[in-house]
Structures are given as structure tokens and as C-alpha cells.
Amino acid sequence: MKSYRPPRSFTISLDDRFFIRIIRIIFFLVSFFLLLQLVPLLNRVFATLIAAILITTVLDPIVSSLENNGVNRIGGILLVFLSISILLTFAVQAASPLVTEQIDALSLSLQDESPAKMVDNVKRALFENVPFLRSPQVQVEVSAKLEMFVNAVMNASFSTALTLITSFPYLIIIAFSVFFFLKDGWIIKRALIESMPNRYFEISLIVIHKMTEQLGRYIRGQLVVSGIIGSLSIFALTILDIPYSFFIGALAGLANMIPYFGPLLGFFLAAAVALLHEPSFSIVMAVAGAFATIQLIDNILVSPYVVSRSVELHPLAVIIVILIGTALLGLWGALLAVPVASILKVTFSSMRWGLENYRLKERTRFESG
User: Does residue 44 lie in a domain region?
Assistant: First the structure.
């Protein structure tokens, strides 16, 4: 009986498609890793592009209306840019005396009082006016938390100011991008539509139309709401005699564009300045009452009538997208998170409706045939 001897060598043949799949997977993983490495470098580029698209969405109906009334499109774009420049110039000239006065007052205040002294004033006001904070153990914990909060606010303020200063070149890029998007946007839309298969041509038109229309209404509504909230905040803080009311109110209006977190940011900033100016718990309660009233007016009267509800998201979804946007793009991400999420929502909902409608038409045509 012969014993079995294994062959000295053997080969395994695999389908070439297996190796192609492996190469594709490796290529995808490497590309994804490189993209993650480039995100910190490209965040300004993404934010600039998204901001230009959003501004274009707001201005395009105005330019199109001028074009429909016989104005050349480039002339209409220049007219809109000129009108915005004139409005901004008048606004700056009107606000410059108050802004200069408050900047001088802020500079003198920072020279007279160090951050440590400001923290001591706030702690003294809290410990004297809030009974349950008078325990020594609680005071130690509150002092540590307060110092951490002040340091975080100062770092965030410095980072935000630096971001705004370094963003000036990007504002010029945004302006040029908006001009060319307004001028040649129809070419981009046509290229996108022509790239779709014929069977999805109608769906593509519906998606682009609904996306631009509803998103434009949302952004224009948010700008109007921010202006109203900023004006009400400036008025309320001026009545309460809070220092730097113009700055704080304007920031509160801008921050209101960030749902949930924005109003809290405006309140905390106003309350901190109020405590530094007048170490009294009553002034904090007055500021809280003012901001609560403003938010009540916003939620009951302003937003329901100004902001389009067709692109609203679930509150939990809003919080999640804001956190993701902040983690990826910082301040720009927090501002742009909700509009971008609205774009995605409108796009997917329109595509789903279009596909279901298309299938229904195909089924009806098949049954009738």
C-alpha cells in the first residue's frame, strides 16, 4: 500500500475581480484617511464655498427679478452688490459713534480691572446674593468652576476675534465666488441636470428647484429674525443700563442663528458683563427675564411667521448637526450646520418623492399598456 505524499508545490487561482475589489477597498480606506488628515487644512475652503452658495441662494431671486424686468444679469448683480455696499456704509456710519464709545469704555475697563479682579467681583456677588452658595465647600467648587469658565470664555473670545480678523481675505473670496455663482449658476445647474440619466431628468429638476427655493426662504427668514432679535436685545440691554449693549445685542442677534445654543450664549455674555458692572444677583435676574421675554417673542410671534417651516429639523437632529459642524469647522460649522442639514433633508425628501412618483407612473403606464 502506497503512502500519500503531498505535492511539493501548489498554486491557488483566484478570480481577478477579487483582487480588484481588494485594491478598491484599500484605495477607499487610504483616500478616506488622507481626507481626514486634510479636513483641518480644508475647513476654511469648505466653509468659504458653503457660505458663498448660501449667500447666492439668498440673492439669486433678487437678481432674477431684476433680469425679468429687463435689467442685464451682470448689471443686476452689480446693482445688488452696490445696494448692499451702500446699506453697509450707512449702517457703519450710523453705528460708528456708539461703537467707538463702547470700544473706548471697554479698553478703559480692561486697563482698570484685571481678569482675576473681575472673577473676584463675580464670586463676591454670587456668594452674597445666593444663600445656598455660602457653604465653604460649595464656594471652593464654585470658584474653581467660575475660573475655568472665565478662562474658557477668554480663550473662546480670543479665538473668535482671531478667526474674524483672519477671515477678511476669505470674505473677499466669498464676494467674488458669489458674483460668479450668480452670473454662471445656471451653467452649473444645467451641467448637473445633463449629467443625470434621462429617466431621472424630472426628478433632478424637482430636487434643484425645491432645494434652492426652500433653502433661500429659510436663510432670508433667519436673517430677518436675527435682525429683529438683535434690535430687541440692544433695546432691552440699553433699558437695563448694561455696558456695551450694542455689542452684546448685535452678538446675541447673530448667535440666534445657531438654534438653542445661540440664545444661551447671548444671555451668558450679557449676564457676565452685568455682574462685572454691578455685582448684584438682581441684575442677572433682570437680564434673564429680558432674554426670556425676547425668546418668547421669537418663538411665538417672529419665527412662526418669518422662518419657513418646510425645512425645519427635529430638535435632537439640530443639536447633533450643530455639534458635528462645530467639531469639524468651529464657529463657521456652528453657523452653517443647520442650513447644510436643511439642504440634505430637502434633497433626500425630494428625491424620495420623485422616485416614488416615477415608479407610480411607470406602474400605471405598464398596467395601461
Answer: no
